[in-house]
Amino acid sequence: MRKIVAVRRVLADMLGHFNDDDGWSMASHLAITALMALFPFLIFATTLASFLGAQAFAETAVHLVFDTWPEQIAAPIASEVVNVLTIRRGGLLTFGVLLAAFFASNGVEALRTSLNRAYRVTETRSFVFRRVQSIVFVLIATIGFVIISVLLVFAPLIARIALARAEWIEPYMGTFTLWRYVIASTVIVLGLIAVHVWLPAGKRRFVDMVPGILFTLIGWLVGSTVFAAYLDRFSSYVNTYAGLASIMVAVVFLYIVSAIFILGGELNASIRRYLDARARVGG
């Protein structure tokens, strides 16, 4: 009975603070900012990858970003993203590419603001520190994508070497698409951990962040599945928005994802508040 009461209090606190602190508006802000940051990030990352010799980066980046999206949402825009990324651009350090990196960092700043509100903390770090940290996040993500791109290019060679040493893995070597999903999912998990650890103000133990991260992952899986099923059976987006249907579907999907992400932070904060309250009254 006590556990049921605890769960009810934590959930009530989580949902109440989400609603009272403009969580719905923050989810909308985060969704639009993420969409606006996505293309500049991919353009910057592709330009840097080309400079480093990773010519196959565009296809890899699209798979890493969109493989975890429902096909009904990703398919209409993935091909257009590839078209944008394969346009030849000037040198690496052009103003446009640097500007793309700056706009991409705005997405990181939106994540920071959302988590600060969810964790109920006040930001005390300077603007310069925050912006530099956001750009570093963009650079790390870019380098990570480039490394994965290079590894996937050499995947056939790695597979032949592995088969020569361990023939028992041969039945599993045809599941390249599965490995893409595994890699994309791993990137998401590591990214979630990174943003919860370093973006919000203050310090938290890793164990205190696990519930919100798990909630976010499960929520994204359930939310994307339900939304994809809705698009398959009941959607009238094409009739309503005509040529804008694909972008509107992406915005709504990102809004759902953003709300779940913020609720993950709210859950961590609510659990911490409940445990602190119990400690003050002696358990």
What's the number of domains? 1
Fraction of residues in H or I helices: over 70%
User: Could you say which structural class the secondary elements and strand pairing correspond to?
Assistant: mainly alpha
Oligomer: single chain
The first-to-last residue Cα distance is: 15 Å
Name the poorly predicted regions: none
Please work out how many helical segments DSSP would assign: 11
Overall description:
There is one protein chain. The protein has about 280 residues and is mainly α. The protein has one domain. About 80% of the residues lie in helices and about 0% in strands. It has eleven helices and no strands. The protein has helices at about 1-20, 25-50, 55-65, 70-85, 95-120, 125-155, 155-165, 175-200, 205-235, 235-240, 245-280. The protein is globular and about 60 Å long. It starts with a helix and ends with a helix. The mean pLDDT is about 80. Its main location: membrane. It is a multi-pass membrane protein.
Task: Characterize this entry briefly.
InterPro entries: Virul_fac_BrkB. The protein is an all-alpha fold. The chain is built from 11 helices and no strands.
